[in-house]
């Protein structure tokens, strides 16, 4: 689940993994070029992606209780408030040295049981 959560954070461009946006882009980029409905649609799509990822996580991992989708959405909020941005080289080394290794070990164990 933790590897899945890291993938979701990077795919939805949340705090530890938001390298596609820079500070100058946040100040004068999309907020100046778009206004009104177009800005609202783009802004809402980012949060809709988080909601869809939380819904898919709920279906895949915890199809027990519907309240757990709210807990998964709260994980996004906690991650955004808890972690600062990592440098890109540190993030890439963490992914290659830890996440890929853990996922490969999990897959080896899973397929060895079959």
UniProtKB/TrEMBL annotation:
Location(s) in or outside the cell: Membrane; Mitochondrion inner membrane
GO molecular function: NADH dehydrogenase (ubiquinone) activity; NADH dehydrogenase activity
UniProt keyword annotations, A-Z: Membrane, Mitochondrion, NAD, Transmembrane, Transmembrane helix, Ubiquinone
Membrane topology qualifier: Multi-pass membrane protein
EC number assigned by the record: 7.1.1.2
Swiss-Prot/TrEMBL catalytic activity: a ubiquinone + NADH + 5 H(+)(in) = a ubiquinol + NAD(+) + 4 H(+)(out)
GO cellular component: mitochondrial inner membrane
Chief location: membrane
Residue ranges of the TM segments: 34-53, 59-78, 90-113
GO biological process, one term: aerobic respiration
Family stated for the protein in its record: Belongs to the complex I subunit 1 family.
Protein's name according to its UniProt entry: NADH-ubiquinone oxidoreductase chain 1
Designated gene of the protein: NAD1
